[in-house]
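Hi U.,

Before I forget, here's the chain from the pilot set. I'm dumping it here mostly so it's searchable later in email.
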Amino acid sequence: MSTRFLIPIFVLLAGLAGCGKREAPAPVTAPAVRVPTQVVAEAEWPDVYEVPGTIRARETAIVSSKVMGYVRDMRVQAGDTVRQGQLLVALDARDLEAQRLQAQAGVEEAQSAVSEVENAVSLAKANLDLAESTFARMKDLYSKKSISDQEFDETSARLRVARAGYAMAASKRKQLRAKISQAEQNLAAAGIVHGYAEIRAPFDGVVVEKRMDAGSLAAPGAPLLVLERAGFYRLEAQVEESRVRSTHAGDAVTVNLETLGQTLNARVSEVVPAVDPASRGFLVKINLPAISGLRSGGFGRAAFHGGTRRLIAIPDSAIARDGQVVSVMTADTGTARIRMVTLGRERGGLVEILSGLSAGDRLIVPRPAGLRDGAAVEVQQ
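Structure:
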């Protein structure tokens, strides 16, 4: 092919190539979103130390038997309300009854000898009176030399015998009285022991646990029932060791009972200064007012108030919660940024921020719907 034909072809190809070339479109920039913001600042809140606790009865009685015996009748069940003096448990008392009857027989036997001994004393006293009057007469005659020495000695001997007889009779009467007293004491003791067969409630309360049933052998000191005094409860909480010096009996405490939906004003009744080596805390007992629904073993939270402290708190509306993830959004040099935060206490619509924000940060609140991390924002003035 000649050269004159090649030049037009190259020109044509170059023209076609020029006609197919297009310029790339310029990127579209999303406009900045105008957002309301709030500068994060420190606030001063009351210094409140909260600690969980367990509800316990102020007075608990472990009811047990003082004597050995089989349980004949268990009159109550766990959860029953009882009154002071109410019969709770009856033991088989046949052996105790036999002992009481034996003691009663001893008293009757001793008392049956009273008349005999009194008669003996009366006879001895009469003999003594006769001997004394005879001796007086004989003494007068002896002084006048009207009787012999032997007659006077015989009269003196009879007086001594009469005195000894009266003293012996009086001694037997004293011994009998002591025997009667001992027999009566034995009877009283047998009656007391017999009374142990009936176990009664020591105070008004609630049966929280039953340890034995009818037919079981009750031994002295072995628990039969556990009783709690009704209406008297307290919250027991473990307080960290660092607060032992600032916690005292009589301190005002707020107790939150979540299960009952109530918040109570209470006071510390006792501080046990011994530190638990497991929890590294010390036990604080807080008396609770008498309200219905309290049960031993329930949960409560005690709040100890003391002074104020500075912290960072933000409106609850600025916080986004997605399961365990809690975040807020800030405006950082014209860009929206998501910050993960750790929450503390709530108070009056504000939430304490333990970590994730600092004073001076600009918080987006409320957060516009659909605003994403990295989006351009413009702070509303």
